[in-house]
Design a protein that fits this description.
single chain; three-stranded mixed sheet; 59% helix; mainly alpha; 8 strands
Length: 909
């Protein structure tokens, strides 16, 4: 016993010293704050100048034009740095192949090793850092711009994984692109900039404002990737949005112009380019670029490209679904994550080996060089070639094959292996591969036209020469437009080539290919959305007028979970537990008259319940009960004291009456309080301390966790307190007990959850708003103490109190209610519902009838209804048949209930 109390006394001394140090720190902090408040801020010239500078520089970051300019510049820098990294990887691969050795086997190993290592690094890096960075990014951006929040898709981790993974993927030489990932990267940069600028102007916290900036970021991604601002804006509008707000057009255009300009200026500054030129500059004849008779051939290119684009999307979807449906293979590849990327990269690198199959597909050339040579404006199949032209043609023919065979092999290789490579779990795009396929197909048609018409096409007495490069440009725009279902690819091609000589053929081929592909297959991005099962809202097919007769009441959810004014906390808790998937709940007037008053977020309701019966509230009530018990005990003691005084007056004084000795420890405590700061001394003198007041005395050998007001309590008048009737032995026992209580006093208030090692066991109460709650003077830090040191209820008291509180009605006045949730009427057609959901970007709407809540429709129900309408399963006839079946079932149920009631009446009688 002695050793134990000595140890506790030492800990108490340490805690007391720690408390004094905290009191001194708080006193200095209060003095500093008081001095600052009294002195104020000095009004000098330096302060005026710094505030003016802040207002006119960094504070303007909230303005749109500065934000968009920053977005464009950052994306241009990222694009340039990534292009440099990709070119370094490609040049290293060629250097290893050409200059390291002359042995074919060693050259093969050098050619294959770098791509495989880069793909494996990219796959492992993005899997560890952010798996959300895998793939293109445009399908997810379409989903986000429709109002669906995808978790951790626009974070800094995803940005790092996307940039590094995409650089390694493209540097490996895989037949993949960077246009889709750049749209994703620009969106992440826009999101991060919005979060940073929120500290300056809170308008960027607005969800609609954020969506506008994401729409502009999609345009910047394309503009910075191809240096094509106009085409980038139009492409982003076509690909990512169904309904575009015209007010966002200037935002996307300005940001894309900034990005494209800085991207090309960086090439002038650091790559010693002569001036700002196009990415794939061409020099087609501007006087007579094509003959009007050739327009038929260009339209034919568009037709074949439309069929090929639809076939490309179909083969891609079938291949991905096959890989996913084979459970045994899928399970094996999931256990060996690096096996599939390693095998695919090894096969592609082996096929592109220049001494082997790569000589038929221009395997030694990079993607930029391949497209640049396909766009060249001289004929490859003619006999008279210059030295530069012969060097270009040597990449596209061998000793045993001509340019036609090589172009066909190149087209087929890029067609199939771009599909296979796109399934590797790395950041990758699909636009550049289909662009190359279209360019190769157009070049093939152009070379064939030159063979058929070696001297050109004669029209109106003039002879127009065939330009195969123009056919290549038309084919690239037509095939990529067919795969992506966009016409703006033609504008991108004009900006990439720097010429608009073939504007009419490009537009004709793009429109024809789009019309053919749209009839056969969805776009590549919509196909990926279907594969990934993203919560995207599909478009209604213009198949007939039946969709105008389908109303929201035909597919809405009628069993709506709602709350009402006057609902009890217990009922509210049951509704929340039964519907954990609901993010918000509608609130109505009453269950009998469900007039919609608004909607409440689930988080607000949970917070309200926790505030009503949570730990803070419970401890506050417990402290209140303790205060009432103490007051009753004090009144009882005062009554006993008065009775004792009256009794002493009537009784004769005794010579042997013993007065209790003064409490030495209390005197010492009073002396210590004299050394405290004035504020702490005031709190100590005015506040009530449970230690030095009438706190219930606890046994030093028995600890209790709670107090109860039932029956005997430590605060009852029968507790061992000092009274005039205390004997010598009793008084001594009381003083010893009091001394032990002072030495080992324990905090009777709620403490902080996270302990602070600097503070020890000293703490302050965290219950606010309760009068008479004891406060430890001048201590701001709090620590966790054992549960027995906290004023709390017993298990029985807590259960009874919670049962009573949960039966009370909720406090609607202090609830954050959205008074105007999105509402529809029952007879709103599905076409209007689709338009409203797409334009406004909402994810659910309540259906009302004369103000009364009758149903709710969310993206899930609307998406299913649109799919049923497009497939023909949801028609006015099917809806009418379903209503008749429901009415018949309801009538049969009522008849059964009537028969059962009649049987009961007869049985009773």
């Amino acid at each position: 016993m002695y050793g134990r109390y000595t140890k506790d006394l030492g800990e108490y001394a340490k805690d007391e010293a720690r408390r004094l140090r905290l009191l001194e720190r708080r006193r200095k902090k209060d003095d500093k704050a008081r001095n600052k408040e009294l002195l104020g801020v000095r009004d000098n010239k330096f302060f005026k100048a710094s505030s003016w500078l802040w207002r006119n520089t960094f504070a303007r970051l909230g303005e749109d034009w500065v934000f968009l300019a920053l977005l464009g510049i950052i994306m241009a820098l990222l694009s340039y740095v990534m292009d440099k990294g990709i070119s370094m990887c490609t040049n290293s691969r060629v250097w290893l192949y050409r200059d390291l050795t002359n042995h074919p086997v060693a050259q093969y190993l050098a050619w294959v090793s770098l791509p495989v290592c880069l793909i494996l690094f990219s796959a492992g890096f993005v899997h560890l850092v952010a798996p959300q960075s895998i793939g293109s990014g445009i399908p997810e951006m379409k989903t986000i711009l429709r109002g669906v929040a995808l978790k951790e898709y626009l974070t800094f981790k995803t940005l790092v994984a996307k940039v590094i993974g995409l650089t390694a993927t493209l540097g490996s030489g895989m037949p993949l692109g960077k246009e889709g990932p750049f749209v994703h990267i620009a969106s992440i940069v826009s999101q991060l900039l919005s979060k940073i600028i929120t500290s300056f102007q809170s308008i960027y916290e607005n969800e609609s404002r954020n969506t506008e900036m994401l729409a502009a970021a999609c345009a910047v991604g394309v503009g910075a990737c191809f240096a094509a601002p106009v085409g980038g804006v139009l492409f982003s509008i076509e690909v990512t949005t169904t309904y575009f707000a015209v007010r966002n057009y200037w935002r996307g255009f300005f940001a894309a112009v900034c990005g494209a300009t800085v991207f090309r200026l960086l090439a002038v500054w650091f790559q010693k380019a002569d001036t700002v030129t196009a990415l794939f500059a061409t020099n087609f004849t501007a006087d007579f670029p094509f003959d009007p008779q050739e327009l038929f051939v260009f339209a034919l290119i568009g037709l074949v490209s439309g069929l090929g684009g639809a076939l490309y999307v179909w083969v891609h979807r079938k291949y991905v679904l096959f890989m996913r449906s084979n459970k045994r293979m899928n399970k094996f590849l999931q256990k060996n994550r690096f096996l599939y990327p390693g095998i695919v990269s090894l096969i592609v690198a082996t096929l592109s080996f220049p001494l082997g199959f790569g000589q038929f597909i221009a395997g030694e050339l990079s993607t930029h060089e391949q497209v640049h040579q396909l766009f060249s404006n001289f004929t490859w199949s003619k006999n008279e070639l210059t030295v530069e032209q012969a060097a270009i043609v040597s990449n596209w023919r061998t000793a045993g094959t001509n340019v036609f065979i090589n172009l066909i092999v190149y087209l087929l290789f890029t067609f199939f292996f771009s599909i296979v490579a796109s399934t590797i779990p790395v950041p990758s795009g699909i636009f550049i591969p289909v662009f190359k396929i279209g360019a190769a197909f157009g070049r093939l048609v152009g070379e064939a036209m030159h063979l058929w018409f070696p001297y050109g096409v004669r029209y109106g007495g003039k002879l127009a020469p065939i330009i195969p490069g123009g056919y290549s440009v038309v084919g690239a725009a037509a095939f990529s437009g067919a795969v992506t279902h966009t016409v703006s690819v033609g504008v991108i091609v004009f900006e990439m080539t720097g010429q608009i000589t073939h504007i009419v053929p490009v537009m004709i081929a793009s429109l024809v290919s789009n019309a053919v592909a749209a009839l056969l297959q969805p776009s590549m991005y919509d196909s990926i959305i279907l594969i990934k099962k993203l919560p995207y809202l599909p478009d209604l097919l213009p198949s007939g007028s039946g969709m105008y007769n389908i109303y929201v009441e035909d597919f809405m959810v009628r069993n709506v979970k709602f709350i009402w004014k006057g609902i009890s906390y217990q009922k509210l808790k049951e509704i929340l537990k039964a519907n954990k998937g609901l993010r918000s709940l509608p609130i109505v007037d009453s269950p009998e008259s469900p007039v919609l008053l608004g909607s409440v977020q689930r988080y607000e309701l949970i917070k309200m319940i926790d505030k009503h019966i949570g730990r803070e509230k419970r401890l506050e009530v417990a402290a209140k009960w303790m205060k009432e018990a103490e007051e009753k005990a004090r009144e009882e003691q005062e009554r006993l004291r008065r009775e004792a005084e009256e009794l002493q007056k009537t009784r004769r004084p005794s010579r042997f009456e013993v007065s209790p000795a003064p409490d030495i420890l209390k005197l010492r405590e009073r002396a210590n309080n004299e050394m405290l700061p004035p504020q702490a001394k005031k709190e100590t003198s005015t506040g009530f301390s449970p230690v030095f007041g009438t706190q219930p005395k606890k046994s030093i050998l028995k600890k209790t966790n709670s107090f109860t007001l039932k029956g005997f309590t430590p605060l009852s008048p029968h507790s061992p307190t000092h009274t005039p009737y205390t004997t010598i032995t009793g008084g001594t026992e009381s003083r010893i007990r009091s001394a032990f209580d002072i030495i080992f006093r324990k905090s009777a208030t709620l403490q902080d959850v996270t302990p602070d090692p600097e503070v020890g066991s000293i703490g302050t109460p965290s219950i606010s708003g309760t009068e008479g709650i004891p406060l430890t003077p001048g201590i701001s830090k709090k620590v966790q103490l054992p549960r027995e040191r906290v004023i709390d209820m017993s298990a029985e008291d807590q259960k009874a109190w919670e049962l009573e509180e949960m039966g009370k009605p909720i406090d609607v006045e202090n609830l954050h209610i959205d008074p105007a949730p999105f509402q529809l009427v029952e007879r709103t057609s599905i076409l209007k519902v689709h338009s409203l959901f797409s334009m406004v970007g909402i994810n659910h709407a309540y259906v009302t009838n004369v103000g009364k809540l009758v149903g709710v429709v969310a993206l899930k129900e609307l998406r299913q209804a649109i799919e049923n309408v497009n497939s023909g399963t949801l028609t006015p006839e099917s809806v009418k048949q379903k209503q008749e079946e429901e009415a018949k079932a309801l009538a049969q149920k009522e008849a059964e209930n009537g028969d059962r009631l009649t049987f009961l009446v007869v049985a009773k009688s």
